[in-house]
Model the fold of this input.
Amino acid sequence: MVLAPSFDGLSEDFKVLSDKTRLRIIGLLRLKEQCVCDLTEVLQISQPGVSQHMRRLKQVGFVKERKDGQWVYYSLNTEHPLLMLLLPQWPAHPEDEERLLQSKGCRV
Done:
């Protein structure tokens, strides 16, 4: 069930989108589900830093998480109306996409 948008909710959504790192994360999640390990390597920031960004993205409903053993995987919430409105216009970030291809991530 999708709730009717409110000014407060919309304001929070845009605050979350005002951070370039979170925009890059959404761009990577557009490609496929990602583990924090992959995001850490691609974005070149610490695991706690990535986790804080993921917490904010989850708070507004832009992402969903799935746990598999010790790993947490994130994907986009395709039911979020603002996100679905914006995604077709989302710019590519070739450097991140190339780093993702080279990423060793969580593979042990």
Q: What stands out?
A: Residues 12 and 18 are 10 Å apart (CA to CA). The chain has a mean pLDDT of 92.
